[in-house]
Design a protein that fits this description.
alpha+beta, 592 residues, Beta-Lactamase, adenylate cyclase activity, six-stranded antiparallel sheet, Adenylate cyclase, class 3, membrane, A/G_cyclase, transmembrane
């Protein structure tokens, strides 16, 4: 399987497939079972091998014992002791099966008649005799410890404890048996028998290292066979488990994708078997459908960022903080008239309108803060603050454009009806009521954004002067007969990000409840602006400059020449008067 399938992560937690765990446990148990069983078998077999070797060595010791009797008779006849010993060594060598097989004859004091190993190492009386001669010629400064070790090696049986044991048995009338002993070549086990003629114990032994080596060779061969079989079984097991657990893999892959996408979906179970895993997945699908329905309902009543946070944190807390956001406020003009005319049908009209408006807000990454009757409050910058004012202006013009398209459809519908008949007075009132027009105000700055209320009921809201200012700016659209009005904050932020919009200064006003004047602007898209609009606003800006400076006579002339509806506001405000004393160029609003 691929690395991705085996090592997916949810957060920082590594996800291990259940099939891998099952195979891993199965492999460990299989290995433990095989190695434990075979180790026990080998240990038991080793014991049997030792017993069998003892039996063989007893048989060969009998041959050596018989040869010893015969050679003693020969020695008694011809007196050639060394020749007889060499003959006994030759008989001993014929019975060696392993590299360190051992045979010896020692007297009860531990003196060696002869000893011989399968690797050719030999010691007999003649060699000991020559060693003794060499000993007499050793320098006086030879280390005494080295001399003792040499004597122990050359002049007597290496294992004094073993010699003491068989001597003790001899005293008790036991002249043969098994024997564990040490030699200069390691640990041995063997058999012995006392020979009266030579007055020696004849011993045959096998090295435990040789026996263990054979055991380890067998263990290695068995381990290799187990490993090969294990690999074969694992390959078969992976294929079998892969088919059995294919449904689990499919379900976990779906769940992993949901976790990555942060979205609950329905798992496809069309080709799944009817087992308990499929039942669990079907239960999950049922739960997923329920949660998605609840989440969809929840999302319709609160903003998207609140839904996303609740989904990720699994809770909603009463919390909030000051943030730099842009606020858009949109309101339907002459709403009272429309309500009186349409009655309950106003709800249907609002739903048509808001379906388009909310889409325009979401399309530009805004969130709906609240819907209050005919007004909507949208917030920009909750996810990212880089483009928030630009996105708000884009939404404002989309809302204005969509509302104009709806009016055009109503007008077209009236034209079609009037081709057939004249509208009644009631129908005319309804027609005028459905010709929705909106104003949009935009401002921004530091505001409080978060959840307020109690644990029983809470709402997501935005609070601050800039929120109220956006509402006041929307109200000014009715006065200046402009679809969109924004603050200097919005103008400056948009111009830093994009040159798509030109901002024409409209006025400097002091909204109700404030003590300072605030410049307001009309954003116009360079892509969609009318060619003559630039000329009109050029004259308007000239008039506005004269108006600010107190030269109202020049201002009146330029306002009349520009041909904009917004200019009528200034003409009515100035009348035929001159600028009052102490004129600061700021108009104070007396209404909200």
């Amino acid at each position: 399987m691929s690395r991705k399938q085996f090592f997916q992560k949810v957060g920082q937690t590594r996800i291990v497939p259940i099939s891998l765990k099952i195979v891993a446990v199965f492999t460990v148990l299989l290995l433990l079972s095989n190695f434990t069983t075979n180790t026990i078998n080998l240990l038991l077999s080793q014991k049997q091998i030792i017993n069998l070797n003892n039996t063989i060595m007893v048989s060969r010791l009998k041959d050596l014992y018989s040869a010893a009797g015969n050679q003693y008779q020969i020695f008694s006849f011809n007196g050639e002791r060394q020749t007889c010993i060499e003959a006994l060594k030759s008989v001993s060598k014929k019975g060696f099966d392993f590299p360190k097989s051992f045979a010896a004859a020692i007297d009860r004091q531990g003196n060696i008649l002869f000893e011989v190993y399968a690797d050719g190492t030999e010691t007999d009386e003649q060699k000991i005799f020559h060693s003794q001669l060499d000993d007499a010629q050793k320098p006086e400064n030879v280390n005494s410890g080295e001399t003792e070790q040499q004597e122990k090696k050359d002049y007597g049986f290496f294992d004094k404890d073993a010699l003491a044991r068989i001597n003790s048995d001899y005293e008790n009338g036991i002249f043969d048996g098994s024997l564990n002993f040490e030699t200069e070549k390691g640990s041995y086990f063997g058999v012995y028998k006392y020979q009266e003629d030579w007055q020696c114990y004849f011993i045959r032994g096998e090295s435990r290292a040789d026996t263990n080596h054979s055991t380890f060779v067998v263990l290695a061969v068995i381990s290799l066979i187990i490993f090969i079989l294990l690999v074969a079984f694992l390959i078969i097991g992976f294929k079998v488990f892969g088919k059995i657990l294919a449904n689990v893999k499919k379900i976990t892959s779906s769940l992993y994708q949901m976790q990555q996408n942060q979205k609950l979906e329905i798992i496809d179970l069309s080709s799944s078997p009817n087992d308990d895993i499929t039942y669990l997945a079907a239960s999950f699908n049922s739960l997923s459908s329920t949660i998605n329905n609840l989440l969809g309902i929840f999302q319709k009543f609160v903003s998207k960022d609140v839904v996303a946070k609740a989904y990720n944190e699994h809770q909603i807390r009463l919390e909030g903080k000051r943030r730099n956001l842009t606020i858009l406020f949109s309101d339907i003009k002459s709403f009272t008239y429309r309500t009186e005319t349409l009655g309950n049908d106003i709800i249907d009209l609002l739903n048509v309108h808001y379906d388009r408006v909310i889409h325009a807000v979401h399309e530009n990454r805004g969130v709906i803060g609240s819907i209050i009757g005919d007004a909507i409050l949208a917030i920009y910058g909750t996810a990212s603050s880089k483009k928030k004012s630009f996105e708000a202006v884009e939404s404002a013009w989309n809302i204005t454009r969509l509302t104009a398209q709806l009016r055009e459809k109503m007008i077209l519908r009236r034209t079609e009806i009037e081709k057939e008949r004249t509208l009644t007075e009631a129908e005319d009132r309804v027609f005028k009521a459905v010709l929705i027009d909106v104003g949009v105000g935009i401002d921004g700055g530091n505001v409080f954004y978060g959840n307020i209320g109690s644990d029983e009921h809470m709402t997501n809201t935005v609070i601050g002067d800039n929120v109220n200012s956006a509402s006041r700016l929307e109200g000014l659209t009715r006065i200046y007969h402009l679809p969109v009005i924004c603050s200097e904050y919005v103008k400056n932020e948009v111009e830093k990000f994009s040159d798509k919009y030109t901002f024409y200064e409209i006025d400097t006003v002091q909204v109700k409840g404030k003590t300072e004047g605030k410049k307001i602007f009309f954003p116009v898209s360079l892509e969609e602006g009318e060619p003559e609009l630039k000329t009109k606003f050029g004259l308007f800006e000239t008039a506005l400059s004269a108006y600010y400076s107190g030269d109202w006579n020049s201002a009146r002339k330029s306002f009349k020449d520009c041909g904009l509806e917004a200019a009528q506001v200034f003409l009515e405000r100035m009348g035929r008067l001159n600028a009052p004393d102490g004129w600061m160029g700021i108009w104070t609003m007396t209404t909200k």
